[in-house]
Design a protein that fits this description.
single chain, 535 residues, alpha+beta, 7-stranded antiparallel beta sheet, 19% strand, globular
Length: 535
């Protein structure tokens, strides 16, 4: 009891200090902030150090800027013209999250929820639909508890996927988890959108390997799977972030990985029959051994080191759950056209194979995964597509012309098939299963902010229009974790089916029904959140 009193008294003292500081801020903003802080103190039984949990532009501009920008990937949403939150709150305990939800609801504050900051359209840290908003940043909720005996782990939402991989391998070299290729992803938002990775052809998505979850609902209650019910548990495993509540933690199922994993990268240009090779890859990629994942990274490159003339480079990056000898047998049988040799192969551990695909230097220790910082920060626009029939040679040649028109485009093609084709598309909200050959991620990047933004955005939309004839139809599908506001957004007179059916296909209407029951006041919302009704 004495310890509790010390915590509460210390918290009250810190609150008083912050309120004194806030009293020097202009009334309109300071009143909101003071009310929120007082409400947090009243509704939380654990203290929070104000100087490292609560950030406002008026009180400490440099700390506020750091808190806002550290994890954000897309610099396009950090420009001065973008709306900024009234303040940022970084909870240390689950009870802080409960209090934040209760207080935001009481004070009628609009919340944005951030775990890793990788939202492609900045929806976790920018609001254009309601410009008075606050961010609840979960980055300090990153505890991970691995239980090898039960083949499971509890992971808090603010942990990066790289941290999760590291903590699993710390306990066992023959266990892993089938999730993202970018190791700085916050696992809270990653799994709620599906979470694909290099082992999805063997084990499915990260969301397919979730056993339980802890979520704060709009009433500030913490619910596990049993308490939230199977409908909500279904919805949060692929239904996209920011719609149903605040994900506190996932209980994930670990999967077996071999002691030896083989990785490789083989690059071919157009002058090396790159177009024919890619056409062949489309025909076999979804049919390869389930232990093998080969994605293709495609971008313009110089024809020679000193030449200004450009061509297209296609890099085949693979991960094989086994040794090089067996991999070479599989490749000779299924995809000999790539010409993979023993010299191309690197035998390593599973954790090192993850780092290889993520782009870490070969000398980087596995502890680098604990850093959790993104290696990718750019001004960019992204889109996605799913392909159900091979794109013909003439379609690829037209695409090369489009790519060569742009300064720094990039497209990554990820193979499906295997386990992805065996899981029914209604099993979770993520519907892109049987019949999908591969997924395409489209990117264009630039460095001069607003100066050339319109040019690059126009190029992306023109290229996307060109590809319409070669990708999935009715609907033209997209991946929810590659948010694209061009597809549509919530608002008066808009039809959420325009974007909802693209992300979720036939699962969208079920998501709307669950949302209407679980969050009937639409407390958790953003530009592409699941609505409570359809127009």
């Amino acid at each position: 009891m004495a310890f509790t009193l010390i915590i509460i008294n210390a918290n009250a003292f810190l609150v008083t200090l912050l309120l004194l500081s806030l009293s020097y801020i202009p009334l309109s903003s300071s009143t909101i902030q003071q009310d929120f802080v007082m409400c947090l103190a009243d509704n939380s039984d654990a203290s929070f150090p104000m100087d490292s949990s609560f950030f406002t532009h008026d009180l400490n501009a440099s700390s506020f800027k750091l808190a806002l920008e550290t994890s954000a990937q897309n610099l396009r949403y950090l420009m001065p013209s973008n709306p900024k939150p009234d303040f940022i709150f970084e909870p240390l305990y689950e009870t802080h999250v409960q209090a934040a939800v209760l207080c935001a609801k009481k004070l009628k504050l609009h919340l944005r929820l951030r775990s890793g900051g990788h939202d492609y359209e900045g929806l976790s840290y920018v609001s254009e639909m309601e410009t008075a908003f606050v961010i609840v940043d979960l980055s300090k909720l990153r505890q991970i508890s691995v239980d090898i005996e039960s083949n499971s782990a509890w992971v808090h939402a603010g942990a990066s996927i790289g941290e999760v991989y590291y903590r699993i391998q710390e306990k066992s070299k023959i266990h892993g988890f089938p999730a993202g290729l970018c190791t700085s992803l916050g696992i809270g938002g990653h799994i709620i959108g599906g979470a694909y990775g290099s082992m999805m052809r063997k084990f499915g998505l990260g969301a397919d390997n979730v056993l339980d979850a802890r979520i704060v609902d709009a009433d500030g209650k913490i619910l596990n799977r049993a308490a939230m019910g199977e409908d909500v548990f279904w919805a949060i495993r692929g239904g996209g972030g920011g719609s149903f509540g605040v994900i506190l933690a996932w209980k994930i199922k670990l999967v077996p990985v071999p002691e030896v994993v083989t990785v490789f990268t083989v690059t071919r240009t157009l002058e090396q029959d790159g177009t024919k090779l890619l056409y062949k890859w489309q025909q076999v990629a979804d049919k390869l051994d389930e232990d093998l994942f080969i994605r293709v990274i495609i971008q313009p490159t110089s024809k020679t080191p000193k030449s200004k003339e450009r061509t297209i480079s296609t890099s085949y990056q693979g991960q094989f759950l086994g040794d090089a000898n067996r991999l070479l047998q599989v490749m000779q049988r299924s995809f000999p056209q790539l010409g993979l040799t023993k010299k191309d192969c690197l035998e390593t551990s599973w954790i090192k194979s993850v780092m290889y695909i993520a782009g870490f230097p070969s000398t980087a220790p596995s502890e680098a995964l604990l850093d959790g910082k993104s290696l990718f920060k750019n001004y960019f626009k992204a889109k996605s597509d799913y392909v159900e029939e091979p794109i013909p040679i003439e379609g690829l040649e037209g695409l090369w012309e489009k790519l060569l028109e742009e300064d720094s485009p990039l497209t990554i093609w990820n193979p499906y098939g295997g386990m992805m084709a065996k899981i029914p598309e209604t099993e979770t909200p993520f519907p892109h299963r049987s019949g999908t050959l591969f997924k395409i991620q489209w990117l264009t990047l630039w460095q001069d902010g607003k100066v050339s933004e319109a040019k690059h955005m126009d190029w992306m939309r023109e290229m996307y229009s060109y590809m319409e004839q070669y990708v999935s139809k009715s609907p033209r599908s997209a991946y929810v974790n590659y948010r694209d506001l061009d597809l549509g957004r919530n608002g008066k007179g808009s039809d959420a089916r325009e974007w909802g059916n693209k992300y979720f296909k036939g699962n969208f209407e079920r998501l709307v029904q669950i949302k209407a029951t679980f969050d009937p006041e639409n407390f958790f919302r953003h530009e592409q959140s699941i609505p409570i009704e359809l127009e």
